[in-house]
Amino acid sequence: MNKQNNSKKLPQSYWLASTPTTNYPTLNEDIDVDVVIIGGGLAGISCAYLLQKENLNIAVLESDHICQGATAHTTAKITSQHGLIYDKIKTQAGKEFAKQYAHANESAIHKIKEIIEDNQIDCDYISQPAFVYTQREKYIQQIENEVKTASSLGIKASYVEEIPFNMSIKAAIRFDNQAQFHPRKYVLSLASIIHDNNVRIFENSRAVDIEKDNNYVITTEKGNKVRAKKVIITSQYPFYNKHGMYFARVFPKRSYIVGIKAKEKYPGGMYVNEEDPTRSLRSQNTEDGELILVVGANHTTGQSDNTDESYQELISFANSIFTIEDIPYKWSTQDYITLDGVPYIGNYTSNTPDMYVATGFQKWGMTNSMVSAMILRDLIVKGESKWQNVYNPSRKNIISSAKNFVVENLNVAEHLLKGKLSSLPKNIDIEPGEGKIIKIDGERIGAYRDEEGMLHLVNTTCPHMGCELNWNSAEKSWDCPCHGSRFTYEGEIIEGPSIKPLKFSNDVNTIEKLFKDDY
Predict the structure, then answer these.
(1) DSSP secondary structure letters along 29-86
(2) Which end of the chain is more exposed for a tag (fewer CB within 10 A), N or C?
(3) The whole model's pTM is what?
(4) Where are the domains of the chain?
(5) Structural contact between residues 338 and 48, judged by C-beta atoms closer than 8 angstroms
(6) Quick check: 82 and 364 in contact, CB under 8 A?
(7) What is 29-74+184-249+341-400's CATH number?
(8) Residues of the chain with pLDDT under 50
(9) Could you tell me if 399 and 75 are in contact, meaning their C-beta atoms sit under 8 angstroms apart?
């Protein structure tokens, strides 16, 4: 079970609730492989699936259990429609790059379907149209431009003026031949297939360091080493900070999902609006009937004063369209955003020819995970990919994103300083189920009182790069507003780039022990 879902009071993803927990072994010895893949989500398992067909010796290292991170908390839309992305790429980087992005993601849709059919995977795969709509006049021209550009790139796109909900819209773009599925059923089936084909999968095996001699040497938190000719990092956010400056080039965003039962039948299709606040819709057939996923309420991780309100926003929106009969599921998800809106897939840097990365999927991880697998397979096996330029992590054509670089990094700096300088209460007046930042002997402490009344205390300085964490009331977690590391109230890592947990105590008298040793 996912660490952040140990309590019935906490949100839980339907994808996790409806599938079994995996039990692959922990790495407890040193091994040698051709390729090591760090990260056992959709991207990592897809890379392993394609590469094992090339007769390579492969190992997958997963810090927790496979497919319990972003893949288990997605809305699982298999679509090449990533907002109004194509006209943006064409304007910023040229039609050739827009064509590469379109071809890559359309190919990913077909490849996922092919894998499902070839392996007879039962994962609730359904073909669906996808829509981006707007309720504002200022986006009409942008949607018209997107229809024209997408169509010129070979995508079956059309302009529509209505969608089948009780809301008035100004315009929408429709993509045909898109799809949806159950992401965990799909990934767990792929993992079983590659495991049967001698790909070694190691769970609870967090990579904490990478060194280079003749080959790469990856060290896990338990001290075991993997020697590999090639390294692929698909851990959503690259934990390796020595090269690439990814901490300044990708930024964390959280979104929220409520799974509702409604009196009305869902009309089909997948929908997302272009403006803020984001609202997205799709349905999922379950053993208990139709579940409608209502998604949105986005914010930068660790920068919301009350995350519980995000769920209430979505419930209010759902009430405006449906007659809600039950809300059996709710959960949140984290995505990383790049400077120019295109993921980084390829060589980790221009100077690391045998180290690769796939990150910054922009909330569109289903197709971009498969794009990653196809690009990285081709780079490793052939030395090149026909889509490598648009996704190149070292691409030089992101001058137009300089403003985003400044804005996002000023935001990080602001929250770094804000956490260090903010005035905090000095008492521990905390109700059961409540978390607060307090001060004890001048030190900033994160305090949470559980339902049994026990107080749990952590050092709120993020081990990743020293930002100060904030309390997430909806998930009962400590979240980093700078780079998206998240921790349980007991200090265990949930997700993000940190490779170390928080120092923890459940006894006020031992609080001084939290600060004796440096990270």
Answers:
(1) S-EEEEEEEE--SHHHHHHHHHHHTTT--EEEE-SSSTT-SGGGGS--EE-S--SSHH
(2) N
(3) 0.86
(4) 29-74+184-249+341-400, 124-177+250-337, 422-515
(5) no
(6) yes
(7) 3.50.50.60
(8) 1-8, 399, 401-402, 405-427, 508, 510-519
(9) no
pLDDT, position 278: 94
How many CA atoms lie less than 13 Å away from 147 in the CB half-sphere?
18
Torsion over CA: 439, 443, 444, 445 (sign): negative
Q: What confidence score (pLDDT) does residue 193 get? A: 98
Query: How far apart, in whole angstroms, are the C-alpha atoms of residue 318 and residue 280?
Result: 10
Structure confidence at residue 58 (pLDDT)? 98
Alpha-carbon gap, residue 234 to 202, rounded angstroms = 15
CA distance 123 to 115: 11
Bridge partners of 219, per DSSP, are 209, 225
- Contact criterion met (CB below 8 Å) for 210 and 235: no
Please state, in angstroms and as integers, the Cα–Cα distance from residue 347 to each residue in 231, 294, 342, 391, 430, following that order. 10, 36, 15, 10, 48
Question: Residue 212 carries which DSSP code?
Answer: E
Taking only the tens place, the pLDDT of each residue in 465-482 is 888 999 998 889 999 988
pLDDT reported for residue 13: 96
What's the burial of 194, exposed, middle or buried (CB within 10 Å: 0-12/13-18/19+)?
buried
Angle at 343 between CA 341 and CA 203, to 5 degrees: 140
Please name the fold of domain 422-515. Answer: Rieske Iron-sulfur Protein (2.102.10)
- Please tell me the total number of residues recorded for the chain in this structure: 519
- Exposed/middle/buried for 17, CB within 10 Å: 0-12, 13-18, 19+? middle
